[in-house]
Amino acid sequence: DIEDGAEGETKQTYTTIKIDEGLISISFDPDDDTSFPPVVLDVTPDSVAGKHDIEPGMWLVGYQGAEDDGMRLTGVWTPAQAAAWVAAMDEQQVRPLTLKFRRKSCLENCVWVPPELEKLGLQMVQDKTVTPPRIAADLSEDRRWRKAGVSNGNFIVDINGVDLTDMSILDPKVRQLLGMRPSVITFRPFGKEGEEAQALAQRMNEEKSFMLQQPVMLNGLPSALVLETEVKMDHKDGDLLGTRVPRPCAALPPVNHPQALNLRLARSGLMDVRGIVKNRMKGDDGDEDDFAGRPSLLGRMEDIMEGRTFRTVDLLQAGGQVGG
């Protein structure tokens, strides 16, 4: 399984569906006759494919009809070929029909090998116990693999839609697949899919270590304050827990951007003049906005409060007005 998307939902890398009747209900780009493998463009939600979590962006890597002895590879098809094939299968009503799809992980790196490239220039770990095949070094003259983001120690997990996770470099089938042209080779920093979380954590730690050597992090926080901020994040918020009040941060907002200084009152609470939030009342269980837990009045506040309550305060920077 692979991690798919920001929600961390775990989904299978390869998905096989069987269509016994009806339309395939999967579309590909009929005008794309240059790229490969065929990428799913759209799926009908109520179809067999839609019910099996086939989504746009997945690859069609194989099919098997009633008269086929095994799965036929489609990894080197173009989307135009796939679109024409789907139309032909629907017109001829070839059923049952088994389709195999592949979902790409955010940690994977796909490199397309052109027909004119004779030698890959990859040195592999020659060990039958290492599965999938693992890269030892990039020996290409132009360092094409390193330029493509492939690092020493990466694994080859797929070639043209064929799963290599249980194969070693000494497997004759792997050698045959590596000699195919054109081809698309999929690399990733971990071998077995159960090792993905460990690889992701390692990559995040490497990126963090690199950024800590810079003066400022990508989010604008000075690197010297990162550890202090992380300590604050580990503490409980007390009355601020579940509120809309921004968490205290070691980085102060810029005073020359008044919109960044706006604060909203806590849900189900009151804020005093010191900025301390205290829980006072709670709304109904189904009241998501908790209007019952906030002070309310009829009309405009300006009409009810005494005059001259609201004032405009000039914000100055180097003697010049920047807001107010």
UniProtKB/TrEMBL annotation:
Protein name as catalogued: PDZ domain-containing protein
